[in-house]
Structure formats: structure tokens, C-alpha cells
Design brief:
heterodimer, A: alpha/beta, Rossmann fold, Dimethylsulfoxide Reductase, domain 2, Barwin-like endoglucanases, 4 domains, seven-stranded mixed sheet, six-stranded mixed sheet, 31 helices, 18% strand, B: mainly alpha, Formate dehydrogenase/DMSO reductase fold, 16 helices
């Protein structure tokens, strides 16, 4: 491999030109040309540090993967994330910024790379959709990179075809289609906001003016855009600014976990929670129990089809009592208790004009979205807590309507070539379209996918898709912020990106995504007057003097993860004019609510639309609400379950619109009565060993006419049982003081109660005074901020090489997550309040586990960490028996031994992989402490009080977890642990835990209590 | 029994049932007691050995599975990290208590009735301890490192953690096993010499002779032997109390509700004797019949053991009551819940079984007629064995499955390997016992002869007191 001489680990160039690199004095003085001919071709240059790519090549050649032809020579340059110090020291991780797509929008990520192996994805603090937090999918995506079941190369009817010859075939095919302007060519694309793809599409449409590109996303926000079309005359994306919202009414919007910029929204929301001052208030009207519903101050349990009526009742109350007559035509009062609730919510919203916010969920009809737009306009929230932007997506409409149109063309035999880059439409398409059969009618179906799936079985040609960490690309956030997607690793298998495939139709398949992206951005920058002309030859290392400015900007963009400059900055919010009449007409056109069971389709918190079905981390992650793993289940309320005579685990036959399937039931306290939630994303028939046959496919019941809420569901018990693997079986606190919560008004009274739950306990034993140590590590977990999403659990799993154990082992209560999120219900079973409590080892100063270990395998450090010495552990498990928190995890089986070699590349080299028969548990990310210690020693300073960030803390979108040095009075954790809400879990045992909890505060509306 | 009793037997009004029926002479005793060792094996014996060997094979398969697959082959989990493994361990260790109690403490208290049954009980102890000793090793996640629990001068300067009860367990059990073996073997030496002298084949003579250590029965031998035997008894006596006390520390020093209680040491020792005597009865009732030694191991022995069972059963019952009282009186809500959970939780049937077996069943032994009814005695002994296993399961697994944080609660379901280790260990124990019955005298011949002479003296004294004035030899 030729020496690239690239600033791989480098910072943004400081001056006009990058600092020259040289290997010898002779080279520096120009006596040797460093680039050319130093070594004959094929000769390896001496290692100069360890470039990620060369490491990869060596690795690729020396593993069983060699046969997978992993080593495509890199042509492009990658620039490191600047906020991390540059270093080529092995064992010191580098960080690179990139972006991943969520529904087509960018979420900025920072990827940790150890000597060329990406090992962890974190949120990018500089990206507006992340702000540093990471969601489940950002964290879990990296597992897919190393999936041994990924497809490789191009296959026609299962026979491998070389990419180069396939390009030639595509060229011929494209030329044939170009003759009639592409009339019989269709593309079904994944929703995307990529500016490069926008360019590519326009070029495609120039060559094939009669072709059409449709987007298909099974969980798209089409209704929301249709709603803004009703309200404002064109599709717009609302952007919710929760920082300024005092009163939030969510109409079936799970905005903290699955909808919108949920990471940013969760952070903004959580910043207004916790401390009593400035608390917001959240009302959630919903049927299914969601993460957002779990943190609501008032969760208004209602059928999903009744949410619209509730919204109209709020509008009526605002119109009637609060001087907003413009809402009069939109409102319609309800009766009884529901109307009382609507009135109270309306009064609260009216009091917070300009400081309130109403949101509607993606599964609600367009009319409700329009109503919500009208409510926000009337309340003066528009422009303050909600702004509207032009959708950054290339196809704002990617719902069933577009797919139906395509299906009708397929049915009519109007399509010869269908290029599918949308994820698995055969599986996700509404059942009435029967897409699998229609694909059989198309002569050429070219499908781009990373894994074998249902659509791949129906396609003629399957092209392996590159993982986001293997390919170049670009994406925009919802606010228009552009990010460059940069690869972290040479493709592990032969694969291409969507850009490569589409470019082949304009005969640019050989160009490579990198040049497409870079040249596109060069053109955009050039248009902005940066002075560079469009350089067609600006490939890797291209350094024409006129492009030097662009090169620097490019490096900066890559390093920051966000593109700056014109064409890249956030779009400005648009001015909106409300068309009340249209909204009123739409509301009137909504059919009345039908009695009987309703079916509510919901993207799964973990698998979303099913694309993560092969991700074992997500399969095993306990569902944030039900704590279910490795399955989905039809959730219904305890009352409905009792009426139908079913229990959790009963298998029932669900019938909707003449289609039926069998599914297990999960009785979900707090679910709306007469409503059944059917999570999408399971029941895959072709999804590798992890995903095949797990759960049931709710898509089989989903009709394109009613993709989200459908009436007339029938449910019949079959008498069979299905074992559901839940990691938590008891959801009651049994009257114990475990996860504490108080109404904000009660706090002064509760302070006394909290004081009893903290402070020293009498002890017969002499206590170690850790106050004298330099460092006393500790953690504070704010239950008021925690939304219970489970990102901490997953971040911990990724960070600490925690194995996946499978459903059978979860059923035996052997899940290995070091950090679990406990969830408790309080109040009635029908309509409980919930509280989530992340719980990992609390690092007791008087640790019960330590004195019972016969071999001193778990001991205390000077700094107070409760440490596990894996290689000393013989596995008596006595420590776990004596652990009051039951946070220790035992390797009952050799969970790591069965891991594919490829997956071992994912493991964090800083964390020991545990053997069979060894106990393990949260280490407070001791390896991060040690890295910080090394850095501090090198710098000759003390480790900062907040300098060490635990993996769970780093991921937490809500900033609920804070780690640091308790002996530094200025550290955040020390200040939080001094706070009035602090309490120690199981304080009466005298274990003196280092992890303290901050009691949750609720902010209920007095009128509704 | 060829010889008729030479002397009329005086009936002690306080002890109507004799500890030796008749007064067989030395020759008759020897013949009666060594006969089973030389008699050809019976069909029944072979069948039983085959069945038990099959059970042992299952045990070995379960052990191999445990070692190869890991203890994930069991049903243990988090929170129930100890279940069948430690339950069965404590059960076997408890059973192993009867031997030393009978051998050592009853010897020191000069209880005549111990003589005929001590060998039997000691052998049972030995095999029970052997079965128990397997568990602390195989229950480890990494059993090949079991020796890390022992204090040895490691080059790293690492010692076991003496604050933990588990290294003390190692000391207690290994000491107990060693002393039990030595005590048993020492008691065997005179009888091994008898076997050497009576064995029909040269091979048997050689083997028995090898283990008889040159015993010739001289007065000097007997003098040393008696001193040594008493010393061993003195050594063994504290072990009766210490072993199960230390085993109870495995639980008592923890902070788990249901484990963390100071009553455990005496309660565990009582329970151990309770179960040990029950196991002796279980084995002895059929064995004395089959071996034809009902005149040596008489109803008197069974009656006495039944009384011990009744007494220790009452102590155990007191322990249960006191645990519940403390759970209520202590005001610890976790402990109160742990005990309520025994009555109402998902494992309540096992708790009720424990109560029926350990509290109710022994109550029939208040009635002398029941104590002398072999069927009732056998049934009670079986129930007590089951009940004591259930008790350990309730203490260990049921306490663990629901402790402090409800979100961490779980359930435990045993796998076939768990059952295999339990029933397989019983079969192995039974097989060892059958081999013992086949190759070694089940009743200490020398001691019974001695007993006969003591009884002769006693008879004479009683007769003398009655005014007959008959002399004694």
C-alpha cells in the first residue's frame, strides 16, 4: 500500500498549508521525494505509526475474512475528529465525526476507533440532532458493521457477479432505458436528505425524464406533512423547541424516544426537569404506553382514535374560555371527565401562551396535525416553541400513497426495471399491496441491501450495500444542517453505497461515492464564491492550489461532523399563514370513532420498522416500557385482557380487514382500553440467525388505507402460550423506598423523608475516610430527568464488551447488562404512574459483596471503586447473593466463545473480555478513569472533577447521569450529591453507595389531581 | 444364631426393649456379623447395584455436563445464584452429622446403644460428606481453581479472604471428612483383623490383612486402641457442632433477608442431626432385615433414634417459629417480606411441604407404638429427609429469588442437570453404601462382643439385686 501521507489523525490545518511531513532530514530538505518511487511497487514502507487502513489490511489478510476480499485500496482521505488530541499511539483511540440516517435525516455521531477498528458510536455534541446524546440506534448501528451475515458483492439469482461487469451491464440497461426517457424505469429509494443524492437524482431525471423516483419509509412522517399542507398550504417539518416550553401537550407523540429529533428534544425537555425551579409540565394523550407517556405529569389514557377528539375538545375550551375564537370552528367539546381534562389542559396552555407547545404524533391523522398547527398559531407558540422548515428530505412524501402508485404501475406491467434502495419493502409494505408477487412481474429488480432479506429473495439482482461506517455520503438534519458521512474503515466485504448504484445509471458508477460527494460540495462551495472552480479531477490528495481553501474547509467539516458555509447551514424557518377553513373542513371529514377494538401500529422502540431485527444488541435490550426482549407482543390494557380472557403470554388470533395472524399478548398496565398496540418490526422471515422468526409481523395486518390506526380488530384466544422473555417480572415497589418521586409542591415536606435516606449510618466497623483521597469517584442519577429509554444500557454494552445471551438465557434471568433500567408502576393497574430507575453497581463503600468473596476477587480501590478482579474470580457467586441491588452478572456459559471472529473486532480493547464462570459488573468505566489519569499525569495536572465521563453518561440524551470526582467540590456530581433531592438506594443497609439518586419531581396540574 | 441364650435375660423395667436380643457368644456373633460378607451375592443385590450404578452414571453425566458446559447447564441465575447446588450440599453435610454424633458424643456419654449402629452411621457420614464435598467444587464457575480457597503460600502473596465464610467451609468440611474417615477406619481395624482371620479366600485374607495393620488383639493393642479411639472421639465431638455452624455462617454472615439471622448455627446443627438420624433410619430399617442382624440392631436402637428425631425436630420447629418471630419483632420490612413470601410466594408449596415433613410428621413419634412400627418409622424418616431438603431450598433459593429490589426478582427452575446431580448423588451414595455392606462388617464385631460382656455384667448385677445371686464368669 502506498503511503498516503494523509492527516488521518491530524487536526484541522492551522495555517494555509498543512504542516509538511517528513521521515528524514533528507526528505525534509527535499532531497528525497516522499511521494514518488521511494519503494518499488508492492513493497511495504516501514510502518509510520499504524494507519487504520493498513492495520485493516493486515488484519484482513490474516483472518478467515481474507476470502471476503476486504481490501479495496483506499482512495480517499479521512480526517479525525478535532476535539480529540491527535496521536498515533497504539491503544489510544481516535475519534471521527460522521452521521447516520434516521428516517433520512442526519444524526451526528462520533465514532471511536481503535487502531483502525471502529468500536463505538457516540453522539456528536456539535450536531443539532444529537447534542452529544446517543439513541439506541446510533449506539447499536456499529454492531451491524461486523455482522458476519452481511451480504457481499453482487448476486444475480444467487450467482456472484463482479461489480465491474455488473457496472457494464447497468450501463447497457441504462442506455436501453434512455431510449424512451426511462418510461419503464422506476426507483424505490430510501428516504434521504442527502444533497449529493439530490444532485444525482436530478441528473438521473435529466437522462430519464419519464422515470420516477419514489421514497418508501414504513414509519414516515407523512401525516405530519399532510397536516402542514392542510394548515399552511405546503408540506413543512415542525421543529419543536422544548427549551422554552412550560406546558407541553403531546397528542400521541412519542417525541422523547421515537419521533422527530428525539435526542435533542429529550435533552431540551430534561433540562426543564429535575430541579423544582422552572419545571415544565407534560400532558400526554396516548393509547400505547410510550417512553414519553412514562415521564408525563398527566398521562391521559385514551384510544388512539380518540386523541383527535381530545385535541378538538382542547380547541373548543380554548375558544370558549380563553378568548381564542379563531379556534371555534376547529373545536368540538366532549362530555364528562374527558372534557374536564381537556378544559384543564386548555386552561394550562392558555396561561402559557407563547410558552406552551402542542405536538401531534406521526400516527395521528393529518387533520390533527393541522389542528395542532392551528392551536400553536393561536396560542402564540408558533415562532417561539415551534418553527416550521421546508423538509430537508428529497421526497417529503414517503408513505403508502407513493408505494401504492408504484404498485399499480407494477400491476399494470408498466415497469421493466425497478431499482430498490429502500429498506426491505416486501416486508414493510402494507399487506394489501402484495409487493412480493408484483416484483415477480418486473423483469429487472435490482435491490441494494446489506443483508439477505425478504426483498432480496424477490429480486433478480442483489447488490451488497455498504455500512454507514464504510461509505462516503452526506445527510442533512431536520433543520438543514449538512454533515458528511465519512467511512471509518475499508469495507469489510465487497459492497457499494446507494450513491454508487444510482450513479451507475448516469454512467458514473466507477467514479466512487467519495468523488461524487466531494465534488458536489466543492461545487456548492464554489457557487458560494469560495473561488474554486469545479475540479473534475479533485480526487484523493488532489491539491491544486485553487482548491486549497476548499481542502481546508473539507477537513474542517469532516473533523467537526457538520458542514459550515453556504448551502450547508440550517435552513431558516419559514413564515406560515394558517388556512383555518381548510383545517376545519379536514376535521369535519374525519370519520367518527368506531367502537370495538382498535389496532394501533407502532414502530418498535428497539427495531423501529424492523431494520434492526438482526441487531442482537437491540433484540436483547429490554423494551423501555415492557422490558420485553427478543419478541414483540400485542399490548392491551388489564381491563381489556380480563374481558377477553387473555393473560401475558396467551397467544391470540388477530383479525383485521380479513387478514389474520397469531400473536402473543402482553398485558400493559396503563394501556387504553379497547385498543391493541401492535409493534412493527418483528416477524421477519429472512433475517439471519438473530432476527428470523422473532415475534410476529404486524405489517401483515397493516393496510395502506389505515397504516397507523385501524378499527375493527378482532381478537380470539387460541389457548396456546408463548414464553415472553421479560427482564423484569415485578413492576411494583412493594411499598419500599426505591425509586422516589414527589410532586413538586410536596418537596418541602419530602425533604425530611429524603434526609432519612441519606447520610451516615451507624457502623460497628471502622470506616475508611475516602475524603482524604485525591479522587473519590461517584455518580448521581437524576430520576427527574431519566426518561427510561435504555440508551445507557446499550452504551454500557458497547463500551464494556457485554455479551448477548439470547432469549433462552434471558428467560432464565441471565441477561448480562451491567446497567439495567428498572421500571416501576405506582397507583392503579389501569392507569398507573411510572418511574424508571437506571441501576448498575452503586460502588458501596461498605460493600456487602467484598467481605463474602473467599478469594478476594472483588476488592475496594483507594479511590473507592468496587473492583472486580476477573482473573482471580473462581465464581462462587456469593457476592451476587449478598448484593442488595443484584447488579452483578455471572458468566454462566461461555458467552464470548461463540462470537464470530469478525465480531471480535468490535470489542473495546480497553475492557477485558470475561471468561466463563466469572462474575462481572459495572466498573464505573474504570478504563476511562485510567485514560484520564494517564492524560492528567502527562499534563502534570489533577484529573478534572468532570473530566471522566462514563459511557452511560455520555450516551444519555437526557443528561440524567453525572459521573465525577466527589472530592472535588466544584464537580457537577459533588454538587448534585449535595442537593436536597439526593437519596441513597437502600440507605438503611449502611452500604454507603457512591451512586446517589436524585428523587424525581412531578409537576401535576392542581385542577386535574 | 445357633446358640440359645445361655443366661436368662433380666428385663429392665425402664428399658423393656434390649439393645442386644439374646446373649449370643463370641463365635455366634462373629458368624452372624461376617456372614453377609462371605455369602454369595444375591440377585436382588445385583439388581440394586445395577440400578444404582445406572443412577451414578447419570450423576457422572451431569457432572461432566457441568464441567464441560459450565454451570449454565443448571437453572441458576441472577438473583438465584445458589439453588440445587448449595441446597443439596447442605443437605448432604447435614446428613453426615449423625455418624459423628453417634460415634463420638454418644461414646463419650457411654450410651450402650450406639455400639451396634456406629459403624453404620459413620459409613453413612463418610459417604454423605463425600457427596457433599463435590458441590462446593463443582458449583464454582471455574472449578479448576477450587484450591484458591485454601491458604497456601502463593507466590503472589495472595491468601483467601478469611472474612468470608467460604474458606472456613473448606476447612470445616475437609477436617470433618478427615476425622470422620480416620475415626471410621480406626474402629474398623479390629474387625478387619477378624475378617483377615475368617476370610475364606487368600485374596480376601491378603486385602483385609493389609488394612488390618497387623492387629493381633493383644492387650497392648487394645490399650493403645482405646486411648486413640477416645481421643478421636474427643476430636470429633466439637466437629459435630462446628461443621454445621460454619456451614450456617455461609448464610448467616450475609445480609440477605432469610439468611441474615443469628439463630442459624444452633438451628442448623439441630437440623443436621435431625436429618442425619432420619437418613440412618432410612438405611437401617431395610438393611438390618436383609442382613439378618435384627437381634444386634434391635427395636431399642430404632426407638432411641426416633426419640432423637423427635427432639431435634422440635428444635428445628422452634427455629422456624423463632425466625418468624424475629422477622415480625425485628421490624425489618425486608425480612418480614421474606418470611411472608414463604407462605404466599410462588414457592409456597415447598414451604408447606417442609412444614408437613419437618414439623408435623415427627409428632407421631411421641407415641411408643409408632416408634416401634417399622413402616411408620421408615415413612417418617423419608419425610424428614425430604423436608430437610425442602428446608434448605426454602432458605437458599426462596430467600434469594425475592430480596430487596423488586425489579431484580426472578424465578428459578431446575434443569435436568440439577435433578441429575441430586438423584445421581443419592444413587452414588446408595452404591457406596451397598459396597460397604458387601465388603465391610456393618456392625462393629469387637464392640458388640464387648457390649455382650457388659450386658452380662449388667444382667448379673440385676439378677444379684433380685436376690438370685448367680455368679458371672
Amino acid at each position: 500500500m502506498p503511503s498516503l501521507g494523509l492527516p488521518i489523525f491530524g487536526q484541522t490545518p492551522a495555517g494555509g498549508t498543512p504542516a509538511p511531513r517528513w521521515r528524514s532530514l533528507a526528505e525534509r530538505d527535499g532531497r528525497v521525494d516522499p511521494e514518488a518511487g521511494t519503494y518499488p511497487d508492492g513493497e511495504q514502507p516501514p510502518p509510520e505509526g499504524f494507519s487504520r487502513r493498513s492495520f485493516l489490511q493486515i488484519l484482513g489478510a490474516s483472518t478467515a475474512l481474507a476470502g471476503l476480499a476486504a481490501c479495496k485500496p483506499p482512495r480517499e482521505q479521512v480526517v479525525s475528529y478535532v476535539k480529540r488530541p491527535a496521536s498515533v499511539t497504539p491503544s489510544v483511540a481516535s475519534h471521527y465525526a460522521s452521521a447516520v440516517s434516521r428516517g433520512g435525516y442526519a444524526v451526528g455521531v462520533v465514532v471511536e476507533s481503535h487502531e483502525g477498528r471502529p468500536t463505538k458510536m457516540e453522539g456528536n455534541p456539535g450536531h443539532p440532532a444529537s447534542l452529544g446524546g446517543a439513541g439506541l440506534h446510533e449506539l447499536a448501528t456499529i454492531l451491524d458493521l461486523y455482522d458476519p451475515n452481511r451480504l457481499a458483492g453482487v448476486r444475480r439469482h444467487g450467482q456472484p457477479v463482479a461489480w465491474s461487469s455488473f457496472l457494464g451491464e447497468l450501463s447497457v440497461l441504462a442506455a436501453a432505458h434512455a431510449k424512451d426517457g426511462g418510461a419503464r424505469l422506476r426507483v424505490l429509494a430510501e428516504p434521504t436528505s442527502s444533497p449529493t443524492q439530490a444532485d444525482l437524482r436530478s441528473r438521473l431525471l435529466v437522462r430519464f425524464p419519464r422515470a420516477r423516483i419514489d421514497s418508501w419509509g414504513p414509519i414516515a412522517d407523512d401525516a405530519a406533512r399532510a397536516g402542514t399542507t392542510l394548515a399552511f398550504g405546503r408540506p413543512l417539518d415542525p421543529e419543536y423547541r422544548l427549551a422554552g416550553a412550560d406546558v407541553v401537550l403531546s397528542l400521541d407523540a412519542d417525541f422523547l424516544a421515537t419521533e422527530g429529533d428525539h435526542l435533542r428534544q429529550a435533552r431540551e425537555f430534561a433540562r426543564r426537569r429535575g430541579q423544582p425551579a422552572g419545571m415544565n409540565r407534560l400532558y400526554v394523550a396516548e393509547a400505547s404506553f410510550t417512553v414519553t407517556g412514562g415521564v408525563a405529569d398527566h398521562r391521559l389514557r385514551m384510544r388512539a382514535s380518540e386523541v383527535l377528539g381530545f385535541g378538538r375538545a382542547v380547541a373548543a375550551a380554548l375558544a370558549g374560555h380563553h378568548g381564542l375564537p379563531q379556534l371555534g370552528p376547529l373545536g368540538a367539546p366532549l362530555t364528562g371527565d374527558r372534557n374536564r381534562q381537556a378544559t384543564a389542559v386548555a386552561a394550562d396552555l392558555a396561561r402559557a401562551r407563547g410558552r406552551g407547545l402542542v405536538l401531534a404524533g406521526r400516527r395521528q391523522p393529518a387533520a390533527l396535525h393541522a389542528l395542532v398547527a392551528a392551536l400553536n398559531e393561536a396560542l402564540g407558540n408558533a415562532g417561539a416553541t415551534v418553527v416550521y422548515r421546508e423538509p430537508a428530505l428529497l421526497d417529503p412524501a414517503s408513505g403508502p400513497d407513493r408505494l401504492e402508485l408504484l404498485a399499480s404501475e407494477l400491476r399494470a406491467g408498466l415497469v421493466d426495471t425497478l431499482v430498490i434502495t429502500a429498506w426491505d419493502p416486501v416486508y414493510t409494505a402494507p399487506a394489501d399491496l402484495d409487493l412480493a408477487a408484483l416484483l415477480g412481474k418486473v423483469p429487472n429488480v435490482v435491490y441494494l441491501t446489506s443483508r439477505d432479506d425478504e426483498t432480496a429473495r424477490a429480486a433478480n439482482v442483489v447488490v451488497a450495500e455498504a455500512h454507514p461506517l464504510e461509505r462516503w455520503g452526506d445527510l442533512r438534519g431536520r433543520d438543514g444542517t449538512a454533515s458528511i458521512v465519512q467511512p471509518l474503515i475499508s469495507p469489510l466485504v465487497e459492497c457499494v453505497s446507494e450513491l454508487d448504484l444510482l450513479a451507475a445509471f448516469v454512467d458514473q458508477g466507477q467514479l466512487g461515492a467519495f468523488r461524487l460527494v466531494r465534488e458536489g460540495w466543492m461545487a456548492r462551495a464554489g457557487d458560494a464564491g469560495a473561488g474554486g472552480s469545479r475540479a473534475s479531477d479533485a480526487g484523493a490528495g488532489g491539491s491544486r492550489a485553487s482548491d486549497a481553501g476548499f481542502d481546508r474547509a473539507w477537513s474542517e467539516w469532516l473533523a467537526a461532523g457538520v458542514v459550515t458555509g453556504r448551502g450547508a447551514a440550517p435552513t431558516t424557518p419559514v413564515k406560515t399563514v394558517l388556512a383555518t377553513g381548510r383545517v376545519a373542513a379536514a376535521l369535519k371529514a374525519v370519520p367518527p370513532v368506531r367502537a370495538g377494538l382498535e389496532a394501533v401500529f407502532a414502530p418498535d422502540d428497539k427495531l423501529l420498522d424492523g431494520r434492526y431485527a438482526e441487531n442482537a444488541w437491540l433484540q436483547e435490550l429490554p423494551h423501555p416500557v415492557s422490558k420485553l426482549t427478543w419478541d414483540n407482543a400485542a399490548s392491551l390494557s388489564p381491563a381489556t385482557a380480563a374481558r377477553l380472557g387473555v393473560k401475558t403470554g396467551s397467544v391470540v388470533t388477530l383479525t383485521l380487514r380479513g387478514r389474520s395472524l397469531d400473536a402473543p399478548v402482553l398485558v400493559q398496565p396503563g394501556h387504553a382500553d379497547d385498543s391493541v398496540t401492535l409493534p412493527l418490526g418483528y416477524g421477519r422471515t429472512v433475517a439471519g440467525p438473530a432476527g428470523t422468526g422473532v415475534g410476529f409481523s404486524a405489517y401483515a395486518l397493516r393496510a395502506s388505507a389505515a397504516p397507523w390506526i385501524d378499527a375493527g380488530l378482532e381478537l380470539k384466544p387460541t389457548g396456546r402460550k408463548h414464553a415472553l422473555a421479560q427482564t423484569q417480572e415485578h413492576f411494583s415497589m412493594e411499598g419500599r423506598s426505591i425509586a422516589l418521586s414527589y410532586d413538586v409542591a410536596e418537596l418541602p415536606k419530602a425533604v425530611h423523608e429524603l434526609e432519612e435516606q441519606r447520610g451516615p449510618q451507624p457502623s460497628l466497623l471502622p470506616l475508611v475516610d475516602y475524603g482524604k483521597e485525591e479522587y473519590r469517584w461517584g455518580m448521581a442519577i437524576d430520576l427527574g430527568k431519566c426518561i427510561g429509554c435504555g440508551a445507557c444500557t446499550l452504551a454500557c454494552q458497547a463500551e464494556n464488551n457485554i455479551p448477548v445471551v439470547g432469549k433462552e438465557q434471558v428467560l432464565t434471568s441471565r441477561e448480562m447488562h451491567w446497567l439495567r433500567v428498572d421500571r416501576y408502576y405506582e397507583g392503579s393497574e389501569a392507569d398507573p404512574e411510572t418511574i424508571s430507575q437506571p441501576l448498575a453497581c452503586v460502588h458501596c463503600e461498605q460493600a456487602p459483596c467484598e467481605y463474602v468473596c473467599p478469594v478476594n476477587a472483588t476488592v475496594h480501590s483507594d479511590e473507592g471503586l468496587n473492583e472486580m478482579v476477573y482473573n482471580r474470580c473462581v465464581g462462587t457467586r456469593y457476592c451476587s447473593n449478598n448484593c442488595a441491588y443484584k447488579v452483578r452478572r455471572f458468566n454462566y456459559l461461555d458467552y464470548h466463545g461463540t462470537v464470530a471472529p469478525q465480531l471480535k473486532m468490535l470489542q473495546n480493547p480497553d475492557v477485558t473480555v470475561r471468561a466463563r464462570g466469572v462474575m462481572e459488573k459495572c466498573s464505573y468505566c474504570v478504563h476511562r478513569i485510567e485514560h484520564a489519569r494517564i492524560d492528567a499525569r502527562v499534563a502534570g495536572v489533577k484529573i478534572g472533577g468532570d473530566a471522566v465521563v462514563s459511557a452511560c453518561q455520555q450516551a444519555c440524551p437526557a443528561e440524567a447521569i453525572v459521573f465525577g470526582n466527589l472530592n472535588d467540590p466544584a464537580s457537577r456530581v459533588a454538587r448534585l450529591q449535595q442537593g436536597e433531592r439526593r437519596y441513597d438506594l437502600l440507605h438503611e443497609l449502611g452500604t454507603r453507595p457512591r451512586t446517589a439518586y436524585l428523587a424525581r419531581l412531578r409537576n401535576p396540574n392542581g385542577e386535574l389531581v | 444364631m445357633s446358640a440359645k441364650p445361655a443366661i436368662a435375660i433380666a428385663i429392665d423395667p425402664l428399658e423393656p426393649v434390649p439393645v442386644l436380643v439374646g446373649r449370643p457368644d463370641d463365635r455366634a456373633l462373629t458368624e452372624a456379623l461376617v456372614k453377609p460378607l462371605y455369602a454369595p451375592t444375591t440377585r436382588g443385590w445385583k439388581l440394586l447395584v445395577t440400578a444404582l450404578a445406572a443412577g451414578m452414571a447419570f450423576w457422572l453425566l451431569s457432572l461432566a455436563t457441568t464441567l464441560v458446559v459450565g454451570i449454565g447447564a443448571w437453572g441458576n441465575n441472577i438473583p438465584v445464584a445458589w439453588a440445587f447446588d448449595i441446597t443439596t450440599f447442605v443437605w448432604w453435610i447435614g446428613i453426615g452429622h449423625a455418624g459423628t454424633l453417634i460415634s463420638a458424643i454418644l461414646l463419650l456419654f457411654q450410651q450402650k446403644w450406639r455400639t451396634s449402629i456406629n459403624r453404620f452411621a459413620e459409613a453413612m457420614t463418610l459417604f454423605a460428606v463425600a457427596m457433599a464435598g463435590v458441590y462446593p467444587i463443582i458449583h464454582l464457575g471455574r472449578p479448576w481453581f477450587f484450591w484458591w480457597l485454601m491458604p497456601y503460600p502463593a507466590t503472589l502473596g495472595l491468601w483467601p479472604n478469611f472474612k468470608s465464610a467460604l474458606p472456613w467451609d473448606v476447612f470445616a468440611i475437609s477436617t470433618y471428612a478427615t476425622v470422620s474417615f480416620l475415626f471410621w477406619f480406626m474402629g474398623l481395624i479390629p474387625d478387619l483383623a477378624t475378617l483377615r482371620d475368617t476370610a475364606p479366600t487368600r485374596l480376601k485374607r491378603t486385602i483385609y490383612g493389609l488394612f488390618a495393620f497387623g492387629w493381633r488383639g493383644s492387650a497392648r493393642h487394645w490399650q493403645h486402641y482405646r486411648i486413640g479411639y477416645l481421643l478421636m472421639a474427643g476430636l470429633g465431638t466439637p466437629l459435630v457442632v462446628s461443621v454445621h455452624t460454619i456451614v450456617s455462617f455461609d448464610f448467616a454472615i450475609s445480609q440477605l433477608p432469610g439468611w441474615h439471622t443469628t439463630i442459624f448455627p444452633p438451628y442448623f446443627v439441630a437440623g443436621a442431626i435431625f436429618s442425619g438420624f432420619a437418613m440412618v433410619l432410612t438405611l437401617m430399617i431395610p438393611a438390618r432385615k436383609i442382613l439378618g442382624i435384627e437381634h444386634v440392631i434391635t427395636m431399642k436402637h430404632l426407638d432411641n433414634m426416633a426419640k432423637v428425631i423427635l427432639a431435634t425436630g422440635m428444635m428445628v420447629t422452634y427455629g422456624y417459629a423463632m425466625e418468624h418471630f424475629m422477622a415480625w419483632y425485628g421490624g425489618n420490612k425486608y425480612e418480614a417480606f421474606a418470611f411472608l413470601n414463604r407462605w404466599t410466594g410462588p414457592y409456597a408449596p415447598i414451604w408447606y411441604m417442609q412444614l408437613v415433613c419437618n414439623v408435623l410428621a415427627p409428632q407421631v413419634l411421641w407415641f411408643p407404638s409408632m416408634r416401634r412400627n417399622l413402616v411408620v418409622l421408615f415413612a417418617v424418616s423419608i419425610l424428614v429427609n425430604i423436608g430437610m431438603w425442602a428446608e434448605r431450598f426454602v432458605i437458599i433459593a426462596v430467600s434469594l429469588h425475592r430480596d430487596f429490589i423488586p425489579a431484580s426478582w426472578g424465578m428459578y427452575t431446575p434443569t435436568w442437570v440439577d435433578w441429575g446431580l441430586l438423584f445421581g448423588s443419592m444413587c452414588t451414595f446408595g452404591l457406596l453404601f451397598l459396597l460397604f455392606l458387601r465388603f465391610l462388617p456393618v456392625v462393629p464385631i469387637a464392640e458388640v462382643k464387648e457390649l455382650r460382656r457388659e450386658l452380662d455384667h449388667h444382667d448379673a448385677r440385676v439378677a444379684g439385686l433380685a436376690g438370685h445371686g448367680e455368679g458371672t464368669p
